[in-house]
């Protein structure tokens, strides 16, 4: 929620209006590196940000940039004011004088309209923070140039304030980026091709009296750098540069992720096989027809899920071997106890107990399939991702159907509000 306070963040004073300089100021009002672009960029990044701490940073600075826009606009308006009544002043920029009435508008110093194309928003927090640091640096330079071309003391004071705040924001963004703890060149999620990433191509070469020398420095020598002759100058029978080797994915998977995915799949395989034995007992124990039908459908789904897990192993080149799933063993044993205790209860209470046991199983499976799918995505096993996503969707749907049946049963049984609320609170995976 925004609230406008009728007071500028920095009070502006113009002793000698200069319409031509007022036109220059519009670069920081509606230009590519101006205050509106900064305000929109940071605010929209903030809206998209999932990190609450850094979202607060983005919204704080985005809001301050709106205050800066008001300062620049007020400053420019004072410098442009003579255009309203003075012919000679109006000739400095007829577009502003005639179309804009000698006031500010969302355009740059050349009269080009402001555009959202100025904004750099990727949805990757570390990448956006780097863009913001660069944006503040560019804005600082623009203010520096404006100060250089300004003779009015009050205007220079305001510009000095705005220029200083650009450095403040650079510091804040830089420290926010550093606090994320990401390596400097760890961008995105897909690793670069090993070897190729450390090759520096000497692509700008010359010869003879007018040829410029090939310089060396920390940007192309030392550390991991490998200085390479320009690929265009390399010869070979195939015409291809033998030193360039690019792969669509890293030659080696992150250490341990493959084994972790296999462990998760083997755990799920054993869990689902246990369920194919447990579900027939739950079908028989269900007293409410809709619940029995739901368990019957899910039994068929579970058998299909086992087949998909087998396909995942095949895609990974591994045998579909199950690993004892102690977590599911415990849940199945708990379900057996619920069935035995249900024999002593009325129909609604017995079936609600069954649903509670079944939902604990569903939540275990949902967590397992989510982990497996995410690992498969990280390892770029697209076929396995598709199969696991389908299993996950079925489990989530089954959980929702169980919720619906439970509500129907509670309505029929007219359960006390306190008991019903307790059950509803336990419906979520974290309950």
Automatic annotation (TrEMBL):
Recorded GO MF terms: metal ion binding
- Note the Pfam families from the entry: DUF892, Mn_catalase
Q: Which residues bind Ca(2+)?
A: 56, 60
Keywords attached to this entry: Calcium, Manganese, Metal-binding
Tell whether Calcium is among the UniProt keywords.
yes
Q: Report residues binding Mn(2+).
A: 35, 65, 68, 136, 169
Cofactor: record remark: Binds 2 manganese ions per subunit.
Q: Which cofactor is recorded for it?
A: Mn(2+); Ca(2+)
Report the sequence similarity comment from the record.
Answer: Belongs to the manganese catalase family.
Instruction: Kindly provide the name given to this protein in its UniProt entry.
Output: DUF892 family protein
């Amino acid at each position: 929620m925004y609230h406008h306070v009728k007071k500028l963040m920095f009070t502006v004073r113009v002793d000698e209006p200069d319409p031509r300089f007022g036109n220059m100021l519009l670069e920081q009002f509606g230009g590519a590196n101006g205050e509106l672009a900064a305000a929109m960029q940071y605010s929209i990044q903030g809206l998209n940000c999932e990190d609450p701490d850094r979202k607060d940073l983005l919204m704080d600075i985005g809001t301050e940039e709106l205050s800066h826009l008001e300062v620049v606009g007020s400053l420019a308006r004072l410098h442009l004011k003579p255009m309203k009544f003075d012919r000679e002043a109006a000739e400095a920029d007829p577009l502003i004088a005639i179309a804009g009435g000698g006031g500010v508008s969302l355009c740059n110093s050349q009269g080009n309209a402001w555009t959202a194309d100025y904004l750099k928003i990727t949805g990757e927090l570390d990448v956006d923070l780097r863009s913001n640091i660069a944006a503040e640096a560019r804005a600082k330079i623009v203010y520096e140039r404006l100060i250089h071309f300004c003779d009015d003391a009050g205007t220079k004071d305001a510009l000095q304030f705005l220029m200083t705040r650009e450095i403040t924001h650079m510091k804040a963004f830089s420290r926010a980026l550093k606090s994320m703890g990401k390596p400097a060149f760890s961008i995105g999620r897909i690793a670069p091709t090993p070897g190729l990433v450390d090759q520096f191509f000497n692509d700008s070469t010359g010869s003879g009296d007018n040829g410029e020398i090939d310089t060396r420095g920390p940007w192309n020598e030392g550390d991991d750098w490998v200085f390479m002759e320009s690929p265009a100058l390399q010869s070979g029978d195939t015409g291809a540069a033998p030193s360039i080797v690019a792969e669509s994915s890293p030659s080696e998977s992150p250490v341990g992720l493959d084994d972790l995915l296999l462990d998760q799949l083997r755990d799920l395989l054993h869990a689902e096989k246990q369920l194919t034995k447990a579900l027939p007992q739950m079908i028989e124990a269900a007293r409410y027809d809709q619940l029995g039908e739901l368990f019957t459908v899910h039994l068929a789904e579970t058998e299909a899920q086992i087949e998909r897990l087998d396909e995942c192993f095949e895609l990974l080149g591994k045998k579909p071997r199950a690993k004892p799933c102690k977590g599911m063993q415990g849940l199945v044993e708990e379900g057996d106890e619920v069935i035995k205790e249900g024999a002593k209860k009325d129909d609604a209470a017995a079936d609600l107990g069954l649903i509670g046991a079944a939902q604990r199983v569903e939540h275990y499976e949902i967590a397992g399939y989510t982990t497996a799918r995410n690992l498969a995505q990280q390892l770029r096993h697209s076929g396995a991702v598709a199969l696991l996503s389908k299993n996950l969707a079925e489990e989530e749907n089954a959980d929702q159907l169980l919720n619906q049946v439970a509500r129907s049963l509670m309505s029929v049984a007219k359960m006390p509000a306190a008991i019903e609320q307790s059950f509803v609170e336990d419906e979520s995976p974290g309950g």
